[in-house]
Amino acid sequence: MKKIISCFFMAASSVVFAQTGINTETPKATLDVTAKKDILTIDGLLPPRLTRAELTEKGNTLYGMEQDGVIIYINDASGGDRQSQREYIESKGLYIFDAEAANKEGRWMCLFCYGLA
User: Fold this and answer.
1) How many domains does the chain have?
2) pLDDT in tens, 75-105
3) 74 and 106 in one domain?
4) For 54, which of 1, 36, 50, 91 could close a Cys bridge (C-beta 3.0–4.6 Å)?
5) How far is CA 53 from the centre of its chain?
6) Model pTM?
């Protein structure tokens, strides 16, 4: 019985501390995405894509401290509003959520945005 329990815990511990790899058998980080060498394969990583209007519909309390560091791509900034957390969303681009900004209310901050000087 001790051998069975020991085997179970050893197997479970390898899953708990496992790294995840996509297109690789030997991941080198928590998440390791390796490009395919096929010339007809499109490689890349697509973050969630939203319009500012869709983000506005989510309100100002959905994103908080637990979402600190979340990245999204705003593909249309013409709708919605620039109130509260969306104050700095002025154009399309990559945004990161800074949960500690604005007295811990949080703000979306531009990582790489188009149309900003």
Assistant:
1) 2
2) 999 999 999 999 999 999 999 999 999 888 8
3) yes
4) 50
5) 19
6) 0.75
